[in-house]
Amino acid sequence: MSFEGLLDSTCKIMQETLGAADGIGGYAASSWGVLYPRVACRFESLPKMEEILGYDKKTTYPDYYLYLVYRSGIKEGMRIYYKGRQFEIKLDENWSEQDKYQQLSLTELARQ
User: Fold this and answer.
1) What's 27's DSSP letter?
2) I need a surface site. Which of 9, 12, 23, 95 has the fewest CB within 10 A?
3) 24 DSSP 8-state letter
4) Comparing C-alpha atoms, which of 112, 106, 9, 110 is closest to residue 63?
């Protein structure tokens, strides 16, 4: 079975967008916009906090892994919306090293 055949769900990948200038040197409130809608993915729940060392990246303690086909522009700090739940990307690993697949380490922020 191919990797794509294991991707049994879809999610939205969101990025933060800054508002317009407020006229006093700052910006209006930021919001979250959809970067990638309906991304084929697979969620994997981690049983306990697990330490991840990513070479020169910081250590994170994710609640979930999200596997997907490689997409450029995905960065730490972006958000994932999945079945009414909201997650923050803590670590982005290109574990195929050929820009084919990604493993994102996530922590849950909120449930709706």
Assistant:
1) B
2) 23
3) S
4) 106
Distance CA 104, CA 95 (A): 10
DSSP 50: -
CA distances from 65 to 12, 23, 27, 79 (A): 15, 41, 33, 13
Entry pTM: 0.74
User: Largest Cα–Cα distance in the chain?
Assistant: 57
Domains of the chain: 4-111 (2.40.10.370)
Q: What is the pLDDT of residues 16-42, one digit of tens each?
A: 887 666 667 666 677 889 999 999 998
